[in-house]
């Protein structure tokens, strides 16, 4: 296996571990075990646990950016800003929210924002994603703010594992939120 492939395996293992345990509670030993490498190898690849977490956040937020760009290409050239936002949101929901680890890592990044380097990283990513959504759609600040509010709600529901309205175990309140999500223009 090449160093690039091994590094990708470590990132995948780290994504899963950080999604489950958060930044503070995750140990590099656990990540190494999941990746099938030694803990010193993980440190050699990424330097510190914090640098590894930042690499995972970069990958997760890069995925959101890719999905926004892809969603924008699916909207009709003459689509309204709302229709463009809907296209971004649909693509995001279909591809990002289906892997529970990605939304959970995003939330872990927000939760660890009191760490200066992590806070700077997640704030930078969030701002870039907000500006990208505005740029790709031509939507107003109000429309993009509502779009992000809905997106964060969906990330929360995904992390809570209550996004399947056909599942009998999904609480009624979650079913109501999910069923009526588009009724008030969100």
TrEMBL record:
HTH tetR-type domain ranges (all copies): 4-64
Coiled-coil residue spans: none
Alphabetically ordered keywords of this record: DNA-binding
DNA-binding region range list: 27-46
SUPFAM superfamilies: Homeodomain-like
Record keyword Cytoplasm present: no
Domain of life: Bacteria
InterPro entries reported for this sequence: Homeodomain-like_sf, HTH-type_TetR-like_transc_reg, HTH_TetR
One MF annotation (Gene Ontology) recorded for this entry: transcription cis-regulatory region binding
Full protein name: TetR family transcriptional regulator
């Amino acid at each position: 296996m090449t160093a690039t492939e091994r590094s990708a395996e470590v990132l995948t293992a780290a994504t899963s571990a950080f999604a489950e345990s958060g930044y503070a509670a995750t140990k590099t030993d656990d990540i190494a075990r999941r990746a099938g490498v030694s803990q010193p190898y993980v440190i050699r690849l990424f330097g510190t646990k914090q640098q590894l977490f930042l690499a995972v956040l970069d990958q997760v937020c890069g995925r959101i950016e890719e999905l926004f760009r892809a969603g924008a290409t699916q909207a009709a050239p003459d689509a309204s800003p709302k229709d463009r936002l809907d296209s971004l949101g649909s693509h995001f929901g279909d591809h990002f929210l289906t892997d529970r680890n990605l939304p959970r890592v995003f939330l872990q990044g927000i939760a660890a924002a009191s760490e200066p380097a992590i806070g700077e990283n997640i704030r930078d990513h969030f701002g870039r994603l907000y500006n990208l959504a505005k740029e790709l759609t031509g939507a107003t600040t109000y429309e993009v703010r509502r779009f992000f509010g809905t997106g964060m709600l969906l990330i929360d529901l995904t992390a809570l594992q209550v996004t399947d309205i056909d599942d009998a175990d999904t609480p009624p309140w979650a079913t109501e939120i999910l069923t009526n999500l588009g009724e008030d223009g969100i």
